[in-house]
């Protein structure tokens, strides 16, 4: 465990991302540690989990580890790819997960916090949907996470403009449940977690699962899905996907041609 | 009619819950009277209905009548159980129903007001989702009512923390349409109802029905449903359900074991 | 092109409705010009489109051209009718469309701006759902546009009361993304459009399409649909539909009987 | 009751179509009598119903009463139109309905017998799907009845060729359950009905309802439905619909232009 | 292992039901042994499984162990009840399962063989759907298994008449893939299994899973499901369920009242 | 046009596959010619199309052109790949397509004939589903074509055993509509096509489209689809896919390891 820290107090387990140096990027290694933390929480029958970065960070998590993105001609958001795995693990965990957020939350990390159950953030936090900066075709389950979290026009603006949304607007949009100042947020979340831990765990677990099922109940025909998958393939087969990733690595602005 | 009062003025019918003594608990008897009121409104071709408690109450309705909950090993939220029946009656009533809310709205009563079409509340009102306090597995249609009324993370917080949400936050979350002070709310709702009564009733009825159909259009496979039903059965077969109900009756804090 | 004006700057194309005299009513002719504008944008590979009225208008668009509504016994919102065609064209356009809104947006025009991707409005704007004033049975796809744009109880209030919602409330409800004063809104939207134009067009196009698919994924059985269609037919076969349209033309209040 | 005859023996009720003169055409009057028969069976708590024509008929039923078809510009298969009403009544009847078939079963009558639960036919029976002869756009629920009854390519052949299928092929295709010679079929069906009447009625009723729900569970999006409805409207607005009905009345071959 | 026998030859594993004395009734103990057999097959990476009774039996399996059915007021076909568990295990097993059938297959055993992938039977076999004999409300997933296996009217006849269907008709109905005489059936199935074992196991596994997903893709709304569940509860709460089970135990004909 | 021959007689257009040398393999070139033929038929407003091979062929079509399959790590059945394109073109063609079949129909060609509307075959024809021979993960839309054409257990047997089904069994299974001897089949299909051409083309077109919509209405959640896509990716990333294709080219039996 070199990228996270796991602590338990009573029925509450806290997973802290500790890789400030690389801005808590969601590398395969980082995600494996988060999964380990969840596994530990499951074994300990934790009744609430807090997922957080270290106090005082400027970036909560920078999202996808771009250096791990597959080359062209390969879906970067497949079922077994790390981001998708951790999101399902959070959704399927049988107790509530509180995301304690301080600092910037970008790209895949944004979806990851939305896959938590309750979001509490400091007033300085911000949130951005970034695939349009890189030329990545986000996957349909991923976009559903966003649609379920806030209203459609807000998702579209965030996805199409790729600009960060600040904490106040995130509160209005229902993206976060509460804002708390940095020096109070830890205790606020701990108090909330202790409250949850006194309630009936099975009742909560079944309601969490029912809500998960309802939230994913936007069924489409196989034909429509394969069509979308075909559109997505054109994108990750294309010039702009290569250019986006390369420009990011070279720390320059990309030049997109729409091809 | 000993638990409600029915009055009609022009095209508008008002149903007032009058069982303050028992905090307008949703007993079978109370629900039967609400259903009668709706039946009367249907016969009278009312073009709008107002559902309210008496002015000045501290609790609008305390929700489920715990003393009527079935013993263990029995789904407490079956299709023919009173709460489910009244919710469908409100949804299927062919004219708009305005919930005029003053005071606390708890448990099943919260879902009942959400099944109304327009919610107007005083600034002192509050709302709580309480099954986690009792160890009850809420049903999937019931949770869908909440999901359709506000955003997913707010529903999760309310369901998993079981804490009341105050009127201001309810307004921000879109749970209520308007806040009005206690001395103005009656006239505000009457004015709104009169306005509705001047419009085309069939056009409104068909739009209400279309919205009902759309809101319930989150289809899942029979397999997924039976799985959820199996999870719910484990809960109402379990120790915590018995403990939750008993502790409530004995007016003490429950001790949940998660079994 | 006598009802609109088309301008292009860089990758951004602007369509301006210019028929102030008839309050930019959505006549067949007006809709054909909007469609032409979108076609031109497609040919030019525009990366963002702005849809707006002329600066200073009091009514952005008055919605349906009532004089073009079919007589009784005919669905006024069929698949090939102009409003439905333009809404699909906006949804299927492969780049983001920004609705720049100043003034009143009524009836079908309200749905049309919601079919755009991002809505920016002046503080004096207002929005109304008006079929209940005319006795029209809105169609189910149309109501889905509203449900996807804001929460259910707000849609119900707007549909059943037919009263305008002002810009502030529209912002809270998530109906508009941003409010901007009249003298800044043009530059605000232009800036937003230029920002979009620098991002990866294919990534944006596929996300727009995925969101469209997800937003329409509220499937219902053919039986339920034909039932709704049957209810709607009763309305447009009925007395009130005739009365509503006639009263509008005669500029008097309609008298609805519910038949 | 001039078009049907109702008889009851024990728990079994028999409805006999007796309008041989007009080949048991499904006029509004005929359908009302069938509905009355079902109502009577419901009151009598019949455990099985037999629907039949009189012994020895050459045509079991000729289907739609063409003289009652609406003029152009009107959906001939709306929710409240007689054929659709009787089909739902058969599907929703709480006990099994046995169609005893002798002779030709054409058009809407074919769908009507498929809406029964068990089909027994004489070897001389035949079955035809005929809207393509008249230029009628069959409705989607109606086609679902056919798809649920046999395989897709057989439905297509019958619908696109409009040729009768004989009893042997109907048996192979699973359209009928059993063939029985004309002099044995009455007793065969009576025996089957008596067998059903000895079994548990509620168990049967709930399985019938579950199968009805499953068979109709081919959900589509509102958008797809309105598109199909739009295609159908083009057909009943068109020249060929007028020509088809006229030619039928004038007893000549129609000349279709595809417009 | 006292109720089954497990044998492996090459890539093929055979599970034989050996409890002839009790007609291979699907008791909890029997189902646990079948599950063990499947587990063993999974560990051994078997590429095909044969599920059979001993040669020469008159009853392949008598289905549900009636003595294990729950008392009244309890769903006898819950998610975790043995029959439902084994059916899912067969469907989810990653290699094809061949049901080798000789003799009568009744009630739950009929659904169990349909949950296998390929059915081969002797000409003396027969199949019956029996809940209507006992007053049991079959569950919706269970009925879906039947609908997916053959046509709707055949399922209705079998469910509503509770009479056995013989092997010839089962072949015509597509219920079984092949008939083979008793002295050839063992070698026929072994040959088929060896053929499968030579093909690409992952390609087969993924197609089996895709077909499972498609076959269960008959989604319904939560509301419809809870309604069906409510209807089913009335049945297992009722008089006839008690009477049906009691009469079976007392080996007499039940007297059903429909209550 | 070197691989097909197009002929028109009256309202009927015939497309004949003429690449006997390569057994009418569905290469990109072949599929482009079929698409051209359909385009020509559309322009000519053909009311029926016959798709056939030349008289006397032993192989109607050998299916996929294995030499064009993508290397490992690439979905061989993507939305824009030729087989998927031609299948949609056949389904969406507005008039009935009759597949006139003589000889073996293998792999993708089998799905292609099932995408036609009516199948007529000579008694010597045979049909095989072959991906398990090559290690290919068939796509979910493709398997839906098979499920819609015949019963589930037959599809499983064909997919898991990869053995040809002869014409007699194909008739019983509903895969083909009619068998006709080789010297009569041409006239039989021509007669059928002429019959169709006399009926109402728009009525037929709309029914074809409704049936297409219904047949594809097996909606699944995005999550379930992405899971299936993930399983399929494991297959085309795996050893067996490479081995299957290589063995086919080297004309030897493949050795599959299940990895
Ligand atoms: Ni939703
Ligand atoms: Ni929704
Ligand atoms: Ni189906």
TrEMBL record, chains A, B, C, D, E, F:
<dbReference type="GO" id="GO:0006635">
    <property type="term" value="P:fatty acid beta-oxidation"/>
</dbReference>
<dbReference type="InterPro" id="IPR018376">
    <property type="entry name" value="Enoyl-CoA_hyd/isom_CS"/>
</dbReference>
<dbReference type="InterPro" id="IPR014748">
    <property type="entry name" value="Enoyl-CoA_hydra_C"/>
</dbReference>
<dbReference type="Pfam" id="PF00378">
    <property type="entry name" value="ECH_1"/>
</dbReference>
<dbReference type="InterPro" id="IPR001753">
    <property type="entry name" value="Enoyl-CoA_hydra/iso"/>
</dbReference>
<comment type="similarity">
    <text>Belongs to the enoyl-CoA hydratase/isomerase family.</text>
</comment>
<protein>
    <submittedName>
        <fullName>Methylmalonyl-CoA decarboxylase</fullName>
        <ecNumber>4.1.1.41</ecNumber>
    </submittedName>
</protein>
<dbReference type="GO" id="GO:0016829">
    <property type="term" value="F:lyase activity"/>
</dbReference>
<dbReference type="InterPro" id="IPR029045">
    <property type="entry name" value="ClpP/crotonase-like_dom_sf"/>
</dbReference>
<keyword id="KW-0456">Lyase</keyword>
């Amino acid at each position: 465990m070199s990228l996270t820290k796991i602590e338990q107090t009573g029925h509450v387990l806290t997973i802290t991302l500790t890789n400030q140096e690389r801005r808590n990027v969601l590398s395969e290694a980082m995600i494996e540690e988060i999964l380990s933390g969840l596994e530990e929480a499951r074994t300990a029958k934790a009744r609430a989990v807090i997922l957080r970065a270290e106090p005082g960070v400027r970036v909560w998590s920078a999202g996808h580890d771009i250096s791990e993105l597959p080359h062209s001609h390969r879906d970067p958001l497949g079922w077994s790819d790390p981001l998708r795995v951790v999101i399902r693990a959070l959704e399927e965990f049988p107790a509530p997960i509180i995301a304690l957020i301080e600092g910037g939350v970008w790209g895949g990390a944004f979806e990851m916090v939305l896959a938590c159950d309750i979001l509490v953030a400091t007033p300085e936090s911000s949130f951005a949907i970034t695939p349009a900066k890189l030329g990545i075709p986000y996957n349909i389950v991923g976009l559903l996470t966003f649609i379920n979290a806030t209203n459609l026009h807000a998702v579209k603006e965030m996805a199409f403009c790729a600009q960060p949304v600040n904490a106040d607007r995130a509160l209005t949009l229902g993206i976060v449940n509460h804002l708390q100042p940095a020096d109070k947020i830890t205790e606020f979340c701990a108090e909330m977690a202790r409250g949850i831990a006194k309630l009936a765990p099975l009742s909560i677990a079944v309601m969490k699962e029912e809500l998960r099922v309802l939230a994913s109940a936007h069924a489409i025909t196989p034909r429509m899905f394969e069509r979308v998958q075909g559109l997505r393939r054109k994108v990750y087969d294309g010039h702009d996907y290569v250019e986006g990733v390369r420009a990011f690595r070279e720390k320059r602005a990309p030049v997109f041609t729409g091809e």
